[in-house]
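Working notes for the structural subgroup meeting. M.R. asked for a predicted model of this chain before we commit to crystallization trials. I am recording the input and output together here so anyone reviewing the notebook later can reproduce the run.

Input as submitted:
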Amino acid sequence: MASADEKNYDDINVTPMVDLYLVLLLIFIIMTTASVQGVKVNLPSASKAAAPKLDTPKTQAITIDNEGRIRLNNQPITLPELETRLSQIKSATPEVPVVVRGDRQSQYQGIMDVLDVLGRVGITQIGLATQPPADGK
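Returned structure, recorded in token form:
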């Protein structure tokens, strides 16, 4: 008969092994970040002149008020002038974004006329400005 002090150890205690893996992982993380920060390079110097400004396409804002008047960037404009001006802007910057802002009380046809002009000119980046509800829902 086996005595009570003898036990079967069928399961392996993996806690020390997990501790070892975590320590090794921590050492690896510290060493890789230290090696990245420790790289010395001789950087080129830039001129003291101002760097040329990288032009990103300026968003064009088209506003239709409640009386049907159209404004391009706060300048009054007619529908034919809008088409001419937008085609000039599109030829200068092909991916020009446009935001259409229509007054809540404006006629839907005025907004559709502006969207029709945008379609004829070939502008595809169009946003319709809205206001979030006052109650926050």
